[in-house]
Write a structure and sequence with these properties.
The chain is mainly alpha-helical. The protein contains 33 helices and no strands.
Length: 620
């Protein structure tokens, strides 16, 4: 069976296609020869449009049979109308009526302005009808006689891919490369195809070729490399392929950049650094790749590598517009290396050396944060936060400095002053996420002060206003603790509030003793809460083994408790981020998905699990 563009329109069952004039022309002719007035024409058009909308609504709601009845009637009444045929195609496809879809496509093929795409759909129909020879003949005829357009090859390959025939699709793309004399043609399509088949070495080579013509796609390829590394599958194959690319193309920016991305994703900044330097030497935008490396190292906790890269950046680009930022990044790296004193000294020297520095309030905010979060010196932090408040013309910095000033008050056990500042911040015109932060901080402060009814009222307001907010899960947990344990003679809630406040003020030993006292008494209504809080405390102290044990005791002892999904999610995060046990992490997240489908932690568990599994992207 042979098809050409001229005779493809003939039905495979020897039906003759009939091409009708559009509806608007029919209306004009009818008005001209029968005397139908303009009002009647409008009425007909309105009824027709309403029927189309109704048919589309049926399709959108899965009512395929209703849609077909209406559309087939419209096609009889208004033959050849393009909008009717568009919806009929959808209806036949969704109802899997491939025979009628085939007839429809064939009937309109000779006048189609999407000829190659429609031929691909005709082949789809033949495949679905298990007429493989007819499908392959249709696609062969699409490309015969040569020369055919690039789009013809692409549509033919896509038709094979949609029907699971990968080798035929690859063969067509390779044929197109030979035919057009362009060895990199269809690189992105082939890359996606190979990735979907988990042929990572071939995929990365095609992505590399595609980047030579489409360099803006670098971020997409970076994300794909990250996904493969997170899956712990195909990394060896990918590493070897990238090493070969670098060896074959030593003067190519993308070769070094992709290999560097693989190494940084594998957690090896020492091996990645020379590749980022080589990329920087070859880049059309020098400095960007070193900056990216610095930010990735800070994000991933590779502080020594970040510190060294900051020094290199400042040596290479001392007058760069981001030089001041890099000095601040260097200070952050020092803080991460437990050298907060040196970090603060760098930032204070910057502030002293540049008295007219723009955004000085931001710099003071950074210094105050290091005093508070790294050195745990609320008095020193207080002074810088006050300076930041006085200098802040920007509402963002004013809000940030005011909140941190209140945090200092809280850590100095001045609960009333902290609550007063939090309450004042509510009157600033804030973004919704900032409003949520303030509400939660106020609720915590009232809880520490044992003003449980007031804290519960604020928490209820937060959960109503921000049902999908960042703090909503913590707010729900704290609200339930109060609701279920605020009996006048029940001292457990007060002891728990004391322990939580001691933890907030970094008096960890005292907090731990109180929490264990509550956790040991399994009859205590706050025993599971105490175990959960112990897990949080051990995580703060960077004792992940103890944190995992605390969460494990909770999940074994209280399998029906409200905190189960929260504990499993936290346990999964400890396993994934701290203990590097992805299998245990996946098991914890899967339990949330399968056993606690109504939990507010469902989306977090699903997102974390997807990050650990990250299946390859199917080809377009």
């Amino acid at each position: 069976m042979e098809f050409t563009k001229n005779d493809m329109a003939h039905d495979m069952r020897h039906r003759t296609a009939i091409i009708f004039a559009p509806l608007c022309l029919a209306l004009v002719l009818t008005a001209g020869f029968t005397g139908v007035d303009a009002t009647a024409q409008v009425s007909i058009q309105e009824r027709f449009s309403a029927a189309l909308e109704r048919a589309e609504s049926y399709l959108n709601h899965g009512q395929h049979e209703e849609a077909l009845l209406l559309l087939e009637k419209l096609d009889r009444d208004h033959p050849g109308e393009p909008e009717v045929h568009r919806l009929l195609r959808r209806a036949y496809e969704r109802s899997k009526n491939y025979g009628k879809l085939l007839d429809l496509l064939l009937a309109g093929l000779s006048s189609s302005d999407r000829y190659a795409e429609d031929v691909g759909l005709i082949a789809d129909c033949w495949f679905k009808l298990e007429q493989v020879d007819a499908a392959e003949s249709t696609l062969t005829d699409l490309l015969t006689p040569l020369p055919a357009a690039e789009d013809y090859f692409d549509q033919a390959a896509r038709a094979y891919l949609r029907n699971g025939r990968y080798q035929q699709a690859v063969a067509i793309y390779e044929t197109a490369r030979t035919h057009f004399g362009r060895p990199r043609l269809f690189s992105r399509q082939l890359a996606d195809l190979y990735e979907s088949r988990r042929e990572y070495a071939k995929a990365i080579m095609e992505y590399f070729w595609d980047l030579q013509e489409n360099p803006r796609g670098l971020k997409v390829v970076q994300n794909k490399i990250a996904a493969i590394v997170r899956m712990e599958e195909g990394t060896t194959e990918l590493t070897a392929a990238l090493q070969e690319i670098v060896a074959a193309h030593p003067e190519n920016f993308h070769a070094h950049r992709l290999y560097a991305e693989l190494l940084i994703e594998q957690g090896d900044p020492e091996a990645a650094w020379p590749e980022y330097l080589a990329a920087d030497d070859l880049s059309e935008n020098p400095s960007e790749d070193i900056l990216y490396f610095i930010m990735r190292c800070l994000q991933d906790g590779h502080y020594a590598a970040a510190r060294r890269a900051c020094g290199t950046f400042l040596d290479r680009y001392p007058d760069h517009q981001r030089a001041m930022d890099v000095r601040i990044y260097s200070a952050r790296a020092l803080a991460g290396l437990q050298q907060a004193d040196s970090a603060v000294a760098i930032l204070r020297n910057i502030a002293a050396a540049f008295p007219n520095l723009p955004h000085k309030a931001e710099l003071y905010l950074e210094i105050g944060a290091m005093y508070l979060d790294e050195l745990h010196e609320p008095d020193s932090a207080d002074a810088f936060f006050r300076e930041a408040v006085s200098l802040s013309a920007n509402r963002e910095y004013l809000f940030g400095a005011a909140v941190r000033l209140a945090d200092c008050m809280l850590l100095r056990n001045d609960l009333a002053a902290a609550d007063s500042i939090y309450e004042s911040c509510e009157r600033i015109r804030l973004r919704e996420d900032q409003q949520e932060i303030i509400l939660f901080k106020r609720a915590e402060t009232l809880f520490y002060a044992e003003a449980f009814d007031s804290a519960k009222q604020v928490l209820d307001g937060l959960t109503r206003r921000f049902p999908d907010g960042f703090y909503v899960n913590d707010a729900i947990i704290l609200g339930l603790r109060i609701e279920e344990n605020r009996e006048p003679l029940d001292w457990s809630l007060k002891r728990f509030a004391t322990a939580a406040f001691l933890e907030k003020r970094r008096q960890f030993d005292s907090a731990r003793l109180l929490l264990w006292e509550l956790a040991r008494d399994s009859a205590n209504s706050l025993a599971d809460d105490a175990l959960y809080e112990l897990g949080q405390l051990y995580t703060e102290l960077d004792r992940p083994d103890s944190a995992a044990i605390s969460y494990g005791i909770l999940t074994e002892r209280y399998p029906d408790g409200f905190l189960m999904p929260a504990a499993l999610t936290a346990q999964g995060t400890v396993y994934a981020d701290k203990l590097r046990q992805p299998a245990a992490a996946r098991e914890a997240y899967r339990r949330v998905l399968t056993e606690y489908a109504d939990s507010p932690y469902l989306e977090e568990a699903r997102r974390r699990l997807q990050g650990l599994e990250a299946p390859p992207v199917e080809p377009n």
